[in-house]
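Quarterly update from the structural biology core.
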Amino acid sequence: MTPEGVQLNDIDRQFAAFICRQAGSRDQHLEAAAALLSRGVTAGDVCLDLAGALEQGRAAGYRLESAAAWRKRLAAAPVVGAPGEFKPLILDHADRLYLQRYWRYENELAEAIMKRGEPADFDRELLRKGLARLFPPTPGETDWQRIAALAAVTRRFCVISGGPGTGKTSTVVKVLSLLLEQSEAAGTGNGLRIALAAPTGKAAARLKESISAGLDKADAGVRGLIPEDVFTLHRLLGYLKGSSGFRHNSDNLLPYDVVIVDEASMVSLPLMAKLVCALRQDTRLILLGDRDQLASVEAGAVLGDMCDTGGVHGFSCDFASLAAVVAGDAVSVQPGIGPLGDAVVLLRKSYRFSAAGGIGKVGALVNAGDAPAALAACLDPALADVSLATLPPANGLADALAKRITEGFGAYLREQSPEQAFAQFSRFRILCAMRSGPYGVEAINLLVRQRLAQAGLIKPHGRWYAGEPVMITKNDYNLGLFNGDVGLILPDAESEGELRAFFPSGSGGMRKVLPLRLPEYECAFAMTVHKSQGSEFDRVLLVLPDRDTPVLTRELLYTAITRAKNSVEMLATEQLFLATVERRVIRRSGLRERLWKGN
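Predicted structure, tokenized:
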């Protein structure tokens, strides 16, 4: 077992053996590097840092002298190449070892972003008037939404990061209004083609709702020019069944002038690279997301790397001057900041959570890694919207959750219409860190089903039952159902009470599907924290396991806490809560260095 508690599995060792066969010799330095690289990519790393992996390799049974010696042996291997060479493995100048395709993804993404780093053309006076009209004055306080709008209009690449309730989507509606004004002034107003996208169907639906709400406050002249349709990234790029490629790529570019991607923290390195390669050089790319949330399930922490300046984030002198003159805001200057520094804006004010409220306070403390203070806040009776209760033993979990289950889910099961049932169901959710085990999603979904049946609220007999919540786990483009979409199995009044699966439609109503036609799905009383990204609920019950695991990180805890709008209750031991806050997700890549240091 390695120092991080992760064993090399059969796939890691078989991959290492394959690489050694390709090299023509079983060199332990190459075998160790390939096995650890395979393990790292599975865990979300993009590359293997030789210096950092040295002790892991030794603990796994390999005799490794030093990082320098390891690098020398790898560089001499016929299957290892330098950046730009077509070899199975790539070793860069900083002793980072990549799989060929991951080096290519990282290189393509970094180059595309840096090419978009220069300022765009814009009408300064028109922008000043637009910012003044759309953003009310905030005397003595920097309006970070206004700064984000300034950055998005004046650059071809922009990242707007902020926690829940900081106004990312409301800001982007104003950004689109400003861009349409600029385009019209330049004589191309009617030709500005805009695409809105998100990584999952659920996130796309949420963005659509937010954009629609924001359009009610938009200028009448541009309201009809801002699209309400939102793509999943796979649909935007043109998913090709049975292929990892897309219809749109570097040889068949997307036709849009502006592409906006929400929930960008969920986008993996391969998918983000494929997106930027499918954009024209003059296309504006605006990414929205929360850099502190969980990263994508696949390799990379793209949004986190883009936002990680390594310290206090400031701006160039030119941008600071522009902000003062055009936006009327003062921003800090960071000497020597590269072009990307002016393209990344962090929204700091939450309009959903009060800094004095429990959710906002605990979320901030968890984010900062202040475990003792976060624990104290959870136990503070004055903070009524957040609490930490002792995790019961597995054999006592059903009794401990019984009241919470009937109170949390009983209301939706008593509703008559699908719309009302779904609205009530969306108010409460159980979140878990794990899928398996007594405290995982599978066990708790079974427990909830049993409790609701005992209470006479459901009759879980047969293949489907009235009131069953389902979450799609496999995209079905024909039905328009996507991984993460949540629906309810309910009697259909229009079909003499026969069961149908009801899902929210993009138009605000509900659409129904025969249960037999549903793609792969799972029960959704409880879901993993990963699956909850892009969702929000009035109340959240978070159940952590009874023992420590590398999955338990502050990013997971922060994501879970901030899914709640009104209250969050956590079931965990105090010791495990502290350990979770203290553990950070560290995904190894070279993207941050390439973007912020120009290497």
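The first helix runs from residue 10 to 23.
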